[in-house]
Amino acid sequence: MTTLRRYLSRWLMGALALGAVVLVTASYLNALAEWSSVLDQQLRQVALAVLAHHRFEDGGEPGYAARKPSEFDFFTQVFSPAGVREFGSDPDVRLPFSSTTGYSTVEVNGEQWRLYTLATAAGVVQAAQRVTVRETLAAESAGRLVLPFLLMMPLIAAMQAYALKRGLAPLDRAAQEIHHRSPSSLTPVSPNGLPVEVQPMVEAINGLMARLGEALESQRRFVADAAHELRTPLAALGLQMQLLERSEDEAARARAQADLKAGFERAQRAIRQLLDLSRLEQAVGEESAFDLGALAASVVKDFSAKAAHRNIDLGLIAPEAALEMHGDPHKVRMLLNNLVENALRYIPEWGRVDVRVGREAGGTLLEVADDGPGIAATERERVFDRFYRGSAGRSQMETGSGLGLAIVKAVADAHGARVSLAPASADGQSGLRVRVVFPPPSQGAGHSDFGRLPDEASAVRAIG
User: How far is CA 78 from CA 54, 68, 123, 126, 437, in A?
Assistant: First the structure.
């Protein structure tokens, strides 16, 4: 498997190894030349020292006049055991006497000297060298290394640039692949051939493209659903408008107006439910702790006027204490709105709808029961599908959009809740009981009232 770190490390180590070879070779050649120069200079200094210590055959004095004292890199002097100077290679230089063998640095006439003293029983010998001579040699040696460094740096830089180009080539290919895609192409980027370090980023991009694909699909589905659902009511509204225009008496006109109003209400309800489904699919939502009992009381209050208009007994059974749960209160309200609205739509006048909230073993319970026609057992699974209206029972009373229970299922799934349908009557032949059980929060496992529904003594009932 390709590893960018390993690939670049090989090239960088190769460049450094080559640079090290070049540097060592240059250092060796420089050291060889430097030491050859130093040793040659030492040979010259030995010859000058011999000239200073010997007489020639013509009987002349020692060869001070044959050379300049400044030609010496080294200075020597000899002392007797008593400390009397017997000889100095340069009469203008006098270094301090010392009877201790060893190295030292002394200053004479403002000039630094490196001095070595050798003390023996026969006398004391000293040899010295100017510090400036050593500094000059060091500067010359360092200067000879500048050129190899200058030659080595472009070479290493070129190798590094080549390594980076080769190492990042898979990323360039992936970028070009994405760049040349059409806006509608959301297929995953292939991780084949990409370095291991880059694959998590590619996987994240593929995940983002998958979510974008889901969002686009959700938009397409929403448009298709809207076109499918609104086509029939809009056509019906057109026919009802024609009937209203052709009405010849007040009674026919009143019936046409009532039908037209009902058609508008059905269209508005379908639009609202389509928008609810779209929001459920696209919105992340904000979860928080809220009082389910207070939320249920608010929903019952909102529908109480509609229930009273049809003489339906709409009530709430809830504990007196706050029933706290964790989730998205807006989505839970949307769920309960659809359950209560469905119940009010499909039961006859003088019916009864009970909303119950409480604790149940394993979570928080939200239940809506009515004494209407119910749903056949064979259709209780399919009613959660979009636009499924059923073939009997409730479908015979009033035609709906087929989206209410689909919204309920979507909200329940978003909260990890269980939804179940069952008859509400004691004989199991009529009515509908919809139970939604929300899972408990992690800190709620120890609630003492789990597994117990509120009794009538601790419940509040609102009758529309």
Answer: 15, 20, 7, 6, 111
| Residue whose C-alpha is closest to residue 343's, from 355, 360, 329, 333 | 355
Give 125's strand partners. 78, 118
- For residue 421, what are the β-bridge partners? 434
* CA gap 170, 8 in Å, rounded: 13
Alpha helices by DSSP H, 348-415: 404-414
Residues 6+ apart with CB under 8 A from 5: 195, 197
Q: Which one-letter DSSP state was computed for residue 86?
A: E
Q: How far apart are CA 128 and CA 45, in angstroms?
A: 12
- Residue 419: name the closest of 396, 432, 438, 393 by CA: 438
**Closest among 358, 342, 364, 326 to 441, alpha carbons compared:** 326
Separation between Cα atoms, residue 422 and residue 435, nearest integer Å: 8
Beta strands in 66-217 (DSSP E): 74-79, 85-88, 102-108, 111-120, 123-130
| 175-210: burial string, b at 16+ Cβ within 10 Å, e else | eeeeeeeeeeebeebebeebbeebeeebeeebeebe
- Tokens for 266? 């059905």
Q: For 302-340, what is each residue's pLDDT tens digit?
A: 999 989 988 999 999 998 888 999 888 988 988 998 899
Sign of CA dihedral 412, 262, 431, 348: positive
155 backbone dihedrals φ, ψ, rounded to 5°: -65, -45
Q: Tens digit of pLDDT for each residue in 412-433? A: 988 889 999 999 887 777 889 9
